[in-house]
């Protein structure tokens, strides 16, 4: 049974026992030595492979090169491995978490969970893995820590909306990563409590990172939260304390950032002795695009096959996607961002433009993490013409299903209406992506492995691909020394033509 906690603002002269504070309850969940169930172990392994897949595909991308060069400037022993570097070239754990976090997040291609808030819970893995390697923890310890990270982030995402108040979703990641590290290290409740409070305090920021001209900071923001979580745990272990109560204080997060003193949140967390199973509610991406675009890509591919005439913009009068509030206002025409229709926009911006994504998937009948974002692809004349005929509108029923807590009806798609120049209309709909647990082709271990092989091809040597997969598939059994090998090493010469930027370090 879960336990519900009503979280609200308390005046400084009101009595709020520490054990009733949200940060303390998070710490209690993290410190609970409950066993990890076999299905959760399997899913943790899937997500470790998934993270490595998208990291491999991003090793030569500029933000990743930049973050990796910063980690290289902070060598440390024992330290932690950095994706793309030799396993014996270790960095201080917070900097390894930073570099690996950027690599995982750069392509926006790993797992997701959407409820009251949005999240990529796989962002918990880089900081937890970095600390596991540095601290000499086993694979079983690592799995326990990751299960906690997922549990806390998903529980917070179910209960507390950040985007409603224009706060970036990584404000839930700082506390979850700190909690996961606390579980990994077997820390006591008080230490984890202080780390959670510190991590939250330094990871709240506005959502401008995902608005308008979206910059490379979109990939750095969750990595920064992970780095801050590592540092918060370090400080807490040294006896340093955090602002208390961090959520409920008169000048706390709820009072000034999340709705004000009158706002009350119902947060459900596992009861003592209850297994942490939230990772099973999350889902990964088959396509490198914002999660709300996954189902639309699959529908566009289907329409490409069934109605080849749609490829030519001359045959189409307009395309309207009837969808949820989030899809319309964040990645749709409801955002009011002209950049979403700009063929010269950044990859990060196009990744958050459902009109662009639907157009390209409709014309190509496919989606590729590189080719679909090329400037030459975005600027194609027939694409731009068709793209400008695509718009979104909010549909109340799709919004309701988007926010439903019933996993059997929760949906991230919508209905498309296409008016043709000959007067005909094509109507179709999709609720969830094909790869979703309730989709046409739910992702299984073999799919995660294939995703890794595909994205690592040409980046890692074949022997390295096999070495990593053999290790990852038995994560729960790894010794501390083997955990230190849980990384990916770039093939020789991969960085030969890659320019490493210079900074302060």
Automatic annotation (TrEMBL):
Record keywords, A-Z: Lyase
UniProt EC number: 4.2.1.79
Membership in a protein family: Belongs to the PrpD family.
Gene Ontology molecular function, alphabetical: 2-methylcitrate dehydratase activity
Domain MmgE/PrpD C-terminal per the UniProt entry, residue ranges: 287-473
Catalytic activity: (2S,3S)-2-methylcitrate = 2-methyl-cis-aconitate + H2O
Name by which UniProt lists this protein: 2-methylcitrate dehydratase
Complex and partners: Monomer.
Top-level EC class: lyase
Pfam assignment, any one: MmgE_PrpD_N
InterPro entries membership: MmgE/PrpD_sf, MmgE/PrpD_sf_1, MmgE/PrpD_sf_2, MmgE_PrpD, MmgE_PrpD_C, MmgE_PrpD_N
Domain called MmgE/PrpD N-terminal: residue spans: 21-262
């Amino acid at each position: 049974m879960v336990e519900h906690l009503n979280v609200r603002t308390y005046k400084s002269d009101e009595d709020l026992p520490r054990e009733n504070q949200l940060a303390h309850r998070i710490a209690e969940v993290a410190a609970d030595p409950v066993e990890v169930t076999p299905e959760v172990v399997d899913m943790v392994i899937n997500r470790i492979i998934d993270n490595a897949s998208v990291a491999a595909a991003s090793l030569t991308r500029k933000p990743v090169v930049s973050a990796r060069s910063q980690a290289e400037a902070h060598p440390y022993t024992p330290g932690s491995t950095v994706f793309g570097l030799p396993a014996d070239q270790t960095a201080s754990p917070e900097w390894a978490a930073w570099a690996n976090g950027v690599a995982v997040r750069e392509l926006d291609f790993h797992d997701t969970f959407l409820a009251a808030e949005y999240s990529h819970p796989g962002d918990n893995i880089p900081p937890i893995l970095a600390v596991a390697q540095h601290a000499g923890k086993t694979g079983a310890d690592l799995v326990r820590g990751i299960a906690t990270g997922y549990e806390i982030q998903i529980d917070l995402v179910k209960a507390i909306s950040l985007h409603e108040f224009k706060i970036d979703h990584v404000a839930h990641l700082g506390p979850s990563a700190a909690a996961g590290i606390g579980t990994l290290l077997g820390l006591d409740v008080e230490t984890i409590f202080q780390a959670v409070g510190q991590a939250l305090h330094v990871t709240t920021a506005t959502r401008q990172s995902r608005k308008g001209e979206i910059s490379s900071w979109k990939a750095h923001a969750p990595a920064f939260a992970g780095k801050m979580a590592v540092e918060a745990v370090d400080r807490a272990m040294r006896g340093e304390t955090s602002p208390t109560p961090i959520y409920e204080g008169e000048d706390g997060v709820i009072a000034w950032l999340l709705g004000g003193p009158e706002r009350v949140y119902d947060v459900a967390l596992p009861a003592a002795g209850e297994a942490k199973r939230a990772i099973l509610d999350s889902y990964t991406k088959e396509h490198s695009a914002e999660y709300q675009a996954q189902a639309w890509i699959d529908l566009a591919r289907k329409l490409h096959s069934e109605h080849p005439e749609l490829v030519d913009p001359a045959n189409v009068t307009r395309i309207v996607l009837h969808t949820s509030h989030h899809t319309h206002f964040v990645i749709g025409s409801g955002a009011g961002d002209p950049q979403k229709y700009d063929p010269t926009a950044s990859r990060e911006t196009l990744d958050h433009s459902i009109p662009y994504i639907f157009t390209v998937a409709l014309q190509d009948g496919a989606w590729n993490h590189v080719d679909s974002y090329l400037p030459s692809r975005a600027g194609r004349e027939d694409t731009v013409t068709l793209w400008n005929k695509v718009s979104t509108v909010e549909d109340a029923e799709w919004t309701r299903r988007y926010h439903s807590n019933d996993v059997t009806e929760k949906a991230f798609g919508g209905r498309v209406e296409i008016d043709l120049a000959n007067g005909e209309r094509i109507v179709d709909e999709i609720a969830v992506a094909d790869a979703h647990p309730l989709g046409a082709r739910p992702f299984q271990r073999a799919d995660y492995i294939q995703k890794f092989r595909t994205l690592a091809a040409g980046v890692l040597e074949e022997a390295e691909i096999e070495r990593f997969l053999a290790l990852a598939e038995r994560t729960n059994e790894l010794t501390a020394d083997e955990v230190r090998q849980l990384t990916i090493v770039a093939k020789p010469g991969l960085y030969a033509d890659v320019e490493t930027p210079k900074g302060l370090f």
